[in-house]
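agent> Task received from the user: take the single chain below, predict its 3D structure, and emit structure tokens. No templates, no multimer pairing.
agent> Plan: (1) validate residues, (2) run structure prediction, (3) serialize to tokens, (4) report one or two observations.
agent> Step 1 OK, no nonstandard residues flagged.
tool_call: predict_structure(input=
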Amino acid sequence: MIDDIGSEQPSEWSASKIFAIINARYEAYMPTVITTNYSGEELERRMTPDGGDDRNAKKTLDRLKETCVGIDMTWQSWRVR
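)
tool_result: status=success, residues=81
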């Protein structure tokens, strides 16, 4: 389970570590549950460091799109009630 992916500070280090985790689970056919507040395009931008390389973000999202089912949860957050 990776909770709130994309909330980390975008850096080359964080993008490479997240890719390594997702890729290892992908190659081992292991289930992975991801939560995020971002759409796919937003998450790709969020995981790409400013002025940096977007390849790890793209590869990560490619693997997630192949192996995961997205569920949009559009109700009001209980935190803002």
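agent> Step 4: summary for the user.
The chain has one domain: 12-80.
agent> Done.
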